[in-house]
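Hey team,

Filing this mostly as a record. A colleague (T.K.) asked me to run one chain through the structure pipeline before their review meeting, and I want the input and output archived in the tracker in case anyone asks later how it was produced. No errors, nothing strange. Just documentation.

Input sequence:
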Amino acid sequence: MALTPYDPLMYAYSGIAGMAYLADGQYERAVECGLRCVQENATYTHGYRLLMIALVLADRVQDARAPMHQLLQIDPGLTVPRFLSRYPGRGCRTAEIYADALARAGLPRA
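Output structure:
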C-alpha cells in the first residue's frame, strides 16, 4: 500500500487489510481500515460490512448504525442470511461472529 498510494484500487487493499485486522482481533485498526475503505470508494459494499462488523466487535454498536443505513442504500436487499450465502467463509465460526455483528448493527435477520 505504501508503494502505490494513488492506486485506484486502494479501497480493495484497505478492505483486505481491515479483514486481516478483524481476524487478528485488532478491531480499532479494522475500524480505521473500514473508514478509509468507504472514503476511497463509497459504493464498495465490503467496506461498509467491514466497518460495521469492526465497530460492533469494538463495542461501538451505536456507531455502526450510520454505515448500516448507507449500506442498505447501496444494497437494499441485504439481510443476514443473504450475507451468509455470499460470504466465502460461511462454514467457519468467524462467519457466525460476523453475521451476529451485522445483526447487532441493525441488518435485518430475515
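Quick notes for T.K.: Residues 34 and 107 are 17 Å apart (CA to CA). Residues 10-23 form the longest helix (14 residues).
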